[in-house]
Each structure stands twice: as structure tokens, then as C-alpha cells.
């Protein structure tokens, strides 16, 4: 499938949207840290599931009006609603449940490389299997180059790998996590031929928010919703940043880009997420910058450049 741009300005806005999504999702790791691992004594601590449910519940409020308007004007059918419900559970409920389970059972480094590293490769392979895109060996090699770049970044610290305590279960969850996002990118691109990016983003996010809330209620002892009302000002700013910038605007920008360019081409930019996370960690949290990060960033940049040249 070829790119569809009406004007040069449309091309610029599309790729600006992709970059915005990557920057937002990269900085989300730093913002989430203020809520998952607060450093100041007395601050509230949210469980990962409550954080995800609160984040997307707040974000869903911004899409109530567009979705209601689309329903009133019969711009979407019952089949479209079913599709958005399925995508919402796939992208938000299942995606975050698999990710958090994988992180809990493995470690941060393995989680990063399996989540970020596999998404562009799996997206390209899935698009190939569905017959929507043509995947050449050169493109696959470029994607693997980006995977190596991610590995350089996340393997800069020693790993502790154990087959005990559900390690293999965690690995399978993280691999499934990558397939969930790849399926979302591929299917949402196909279905946005008749559904606008705004309505698609809103419908899937609202569906996912409901699923996350229900999952959190299944284990009320581990997921304390009372902690949300105890957040201080800084933590509320972090939560609103995750909800508005990293969810509402970023997912809409990414979906808008998917309606214009191939799923594999948009997904390859996700490789920059760990780079952005590391850079903001260095500047905002005072974390050290290593040579592995520099090498990884160069590999990722090379991967993105090669993929774009091949597609052109």
C-alpha cells in the first residue's frame, strides 16, 4: 500500500505526528515513575493496573463528544463499534496486562527489548501475512538493525535471568504484548478506511479503559483505587500528562499517521522510545549516559533511515 498525501504539508504533519507519539511515549516512562515509584516520603503509590486504568479513563473523557456525534449521525455501524471494542481490549486491556505481567515475572531490560524491540518486526511480519504490505529482506534486515540498537540500550546493565518464578511465562507474555500492538496497528489501519482516526482512537480507548477498570476490580487488594485521591500536585500533573499528552494526543497522532503511511513504516519509529526515555532520564532524573546508549541510538537511527529509503 502506497503513501497517500494530499499536499507536502500533509506529509510533514503526518511524520510530525509519528515523532510526537514516539516522544510522548518515551517520556511516559519518566512520568509513570512519579506514580509507580515515588521518591518523596508520604507520596501515594499506584499499582500498574490502577495507573493504566486511571490514565485511560481520564483520556476517554476527551472522546465522548466525537464518539457520541458519530453515533447520532450514523457515521459508524454496529460492526464498527464491535471492531473498536475488540481493538480496545487488544491494545489497552490485553496489551497492558501482558506487559505488566511480563515486567513482573522477568526484569526491566528483558521487558524493554521484547516490547520495544519486537513491535516493529512483528508489525512488518503481520502486515506481510495479511497481504497488506510487501516485506523485502532489506527491510527485515533494517528492522533487525533497530532491534540490535534497542538491545545495546537495554543490555547496558547486567541481566539476572532465572527459569524460576514464572520467567518463561513472563517472556511469553511480553512476546504476546508485541503481537497485540502489531495487530492493533495493522487492523486499525485497515478499518480506518471507513472510520476516522478521531473516532477510532476514542472508541478503542474507551473500550480499553472499561476493560482495565474491570481487571483492576478483580484484585482489589493489590489495586487500591483510594491511592488516586491521595496523589499530590506533582503526581496529578504526571497523571494528567500521561492521560492528555501520552494518550489522547499521542494515540490520535499515531492513528492519523497510520491512515497515511504503512503500518511497518510507522512502527519502526517506536525504536526511538528507549532513546527518548534514556535522554529524559538523564536530564530529569540524573541517570548516567553510557556508550551503549550512543551506539544503540545510532543503530536505531540507521534502521529508520534505511526503512524510509526502501519505502521510497
Descriptive tags:
about 0% strand; about 300 residues; mainly alpha; globular; 12 helices
Structure explained in plain terms:
This protein has one domain (8-311). Helices cover 74% and strands 0% of the residues. The chain has helices spanning 8-36, 48-60, 64-72, 78-105, 108-129, 137-154, 167-191, 197-218, 233-258, 263-267, 273-285, 291-311. The longest helix is centred in the N-terminal third of the chain and has 29 residues, at 8-36.
Poorly predicted runs are none
Helix residue percentage: over 70%
* Order of helix and strand elements from N to C terminus: HHHHHHHHHHHH
Tally of separate helices: 12
Range of strand content? under 5%
What general outline do the C-alpha atoms trace?
globular
End-to-end CA span: 12 Å
**Would you report the number of β strands?**
0
Mind describing the biggest β-sheet? none
Mean pLDDT: 81
Structural class: mainly alpha
Number of domains: 1
Rg over alpha carbons = 19 Å
Task: Give the gist of this structure.
This protein is mainly alpha-helical and 312 residues long. The protein contains twelve helices and no strands.
Describe how the helices and strands are arranged.
Layout: H1 8-36, H2 48-60, H3 64-72, H4 78-105, H5 108-129, H6 137-154, H7 167-191, H8 197-218, H9 233-258, H10 263-267, H11 273-285, H12 291-311
Amino acid at each position: 500500500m502506497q503513501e497517500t498525501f494530499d499536499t507536502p504539508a500533509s506529509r510533514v504533519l503526518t511524520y510530525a505526528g509519528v515523532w510526537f507519539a514516539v516522544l510522548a511515549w518515551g517520556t511516559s516512562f519518566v512520568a509513570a515513575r512519579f506514580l509507580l515509584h515515588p521518591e518523596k516520603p508520604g507520596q501515594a503509590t499506584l499499582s500498574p493496573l490502577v495507573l493504566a486504568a486511571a490514565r485511560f479513563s481520564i483520556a476517554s473523557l476527551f472522546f465522548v463528544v466525537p464518539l457520541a456525534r458519530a453515533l447520532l449521525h450514523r457515521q459508524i455501524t454496529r460492526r464498527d463499534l464491535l471492531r473498536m471494542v475488540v481493538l480496545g481490549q487488544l491494545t489497552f486491556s490485553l496489551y497492558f496486562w501482558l506487559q505488566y505481567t511480563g515486567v513482573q515475572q522477568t526484569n526491566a531490560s528483558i521487558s524493554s527489548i521484547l516490547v520495544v524491540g519486537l513491535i516493529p518486526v512483528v508489525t512488518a511480519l503481520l502486515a506481510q501475512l495479511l497481504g497488506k504490505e510487501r516485506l523485502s529482506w532489506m527491510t527485515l534486515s533494517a528492522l533487525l538493525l533497530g532491534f540490535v540498537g534497542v538491545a545495546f540500550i537495554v543490555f547496558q546493565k547486567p541481566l539476572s535471568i532465572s527459569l524460576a518464578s514464572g520467567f518463561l511465562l513472563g517472556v511469553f507474555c511480553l512476546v504476546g504484548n508485541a503481537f497485540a500492538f502489531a495487530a492493533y496497528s495493522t487492523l486499525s489501519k485497515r478499518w480506518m478506511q471507513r472510520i476516522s482516526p478521531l473516532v477510532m482512537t476514542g472508541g478503542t480507548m474507551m473500550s480499553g479503559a472499561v476493560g482495565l477498570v474491570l481487571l483492576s476490580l478483580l484484585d482489589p487488594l493489590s489495586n487500591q483505587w483510594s491511592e488516586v485521591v491521595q496523589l499530590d500536585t506533582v503526581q496529578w500533573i504526571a497523571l494528567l500528562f500521561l492521560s492528555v499528552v501520552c494518550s489522547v494526543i499521542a494515540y490520535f497522532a499515531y492513528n492519523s499517521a497510520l491512515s497515511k503511511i504503512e503500518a511497518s513504516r510507522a512502527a519502526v519509529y517506536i525504536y526511538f522510545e528507549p532513546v527518548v526515555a534514556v535522554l529524559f532520564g538523564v536530564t530529569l532524573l540524573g541517570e548516567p549516559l553510557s556508550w551503549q546508549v550512543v551506539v544503540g541510538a545510532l543503530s536505531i537511527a540507521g534502521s529508520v533511515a534505511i526503512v524510509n529509503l526502501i519505502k521510497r
